[in-house]
Amino acid sequence: MRTASIAVAAFTLGAATLAMTRDAHALGPVDVEVGARVGLATSPASTASSNPLGFGLGARGGVDFLGFYGGVQFMYYFGGTDHLAAFCSAVPGTPCGASAFSTHTLMYGIEAGYGIPLIDVLTIRPQIGLGDAIFSSSASGPGVANPGSRGSNGNLYLEPGVTGLFSPGGWFVGADANLLFFPAMNDSRASFSLHGQVGLKF
């Protein structure tokens, strides 16, 4: 009887200790997240035929404290290419499509959000990103006055969205869906971005 009582008391004490440890961990940990991203973004330009965003690769890193997340991120979008028929017709004997105008985009900035745990290993995090988007372009082909010439310009971007993270241990996989706004861009429209994520959490 005494042995059974001691066993019950030990079990109760152990369970209480684990519960307190878990509660303390839930209230006070600092988690560092480092991950890679891959995804797509629709065009923010309402008039251009090529998409300066498109397929992209990038990375992010940040700190989660009491559910609040802050970090940095960058994405490189490979953009697209326009074949310029107007240039082709200006050069006798040049087949249409020989001249091209290519664009790509580098985005980097900060992001902040708040994680809402659904279950122990699944978190939904509404967040917003803010930073600079550098749109670069180059022209090539016989119909171009200065072949190989390049240009670039920076634009502020705002990227509100939501991220879902599955974190079973010291790593995570997830996805994020966002709207992209470029307030200073002429004739711009809201675009949509979607990325997959994988990384480490420690």
Strand order of the largest sheet: 1-2-3-4-6-7-8-9
- Give helix % range: 10-25%
Q: Unreliable stretches, pLDDT < 50, 5 or more residues?
A: 1-27, 86-98
SSE order:
HEEEHEEEEEE
CA radius of gyration: 25 Å
Shape: elongated
Largest sheet: 8 strands, antiparallel, barrel
Strand content: over 45%
First and last CA, distance: 45 Å
What structural class do helix, strand and pairing data support?
Answer: alpha+beta
Topology, element by element:
Blueprint (H helix, E strand, L loop, with lengths): L1 H26 L2 E12 L12 E12 L2 E16 L1 H6 L9 E15 L1 E4 L2 E19 L9 E17 L4 E10 L10 E11 L1
Antiparallel strand pairs: 1-2, 1-9, 2-3, 3-4, 4-6, 5-6, 6-7, 7-8, 8-9
Descriptive notes:
- It is elongated and about 55 Å long.
- 16% of the residues lie in helices and 57% in strands.
- Strand 5 (116-119) and strand 6 form a beta hairpin.
- With 202 residues, it is of the alpha+beta class.
- It has an eight-stranded antiparallel beta barrel with strand order 1-2-3-4-6-7-8-9.
- The longest helix has 26 residues, at 2-27.
